[in-house]
Each structure stands twice: as structure tokens, then as C-alpha cells.
Write the C-alpha cells for this entry.
Amino acid sequence: PLLQELSIACCQNLKFDLDVLRGFPLLEVLDFRDNQHLTGNISSLRAFKGTLKSLDISRCLSVRGNIMELADFPHLKNLYLYNTPVTGDIRDIKANDFPALENFYLPNTVHGGMNYEFRHVSEVPSFMHTVYLLSQRTPTLF
């Protein structure tokens, strides 16, 4: 239960679910990138709200959820969700959400994520306003 960092990256044959992590309440760093058989919902990570500082589940194609499930994590500095089916909308991020966030890579399934394609030009102003507000708070974010 004293484990603070766990990295199981690029392990293509291991099958596990995010729920199995609940037995490690002190986890601060989770690096599971490139695990095709990792499953679960990022809401399972709520157990680490008070400790999680870095999360990388990039290219984990069976992990689902909404980015806002992690918005109130006070210590989360790094959030890498690129190429996952995680959803959300960065326009939902409010002034007090993701208070410690310094780096993030969001998938195109998140409105405003990497390689996101706007369906209507009318979406762009509110998106840019959100980007502006976030860049004022954390200039290195974009």
C-alpha cells in the first residue's frame, strides 16, 4: 500500500483494469501508456484525488471516461490521454478546475483536444476564449 509510482508501459500482453489500483491509495504517478489491454474508466482514479500528480494512459484504446472526472485533482500536473476514447470538452473547464495542471495531451475525442476537427465555425470563438483563459492561468500549457 506504500507504492507511490507505478509504470507498466508498452506491455502488450498484460490484461488489467484500472479498478485493480484501488489497493494502492498513495499512488502519485501512473504511467500505463501503450497498453492495448488496459481497460476501465478514468472515474476509477477518483480514489487518488488527493495524491495523483501524473497520469499517462496514452494509446490505451479501451480506457473510457470524461476528462472532467479529474478536474478537481489538486496535485495533477501531467495529464496524457492522447489516442484514447476519453471524451470531454475543454470549454467545460472552469477557473478552479485542474489547478496544478502544467502539461496535457488530450485526444481528438475531447472537444478541443489534439487534432480535434471543429464541425462548425461557430464553435471556434468559445473554444479560443477557453484556451485564452487557460493560457493566462498557466502560460506554458499551450
In short: The CA atoms of residues 106 and 113 lie 5 Å apart. The longest strand covers residues 38-41.
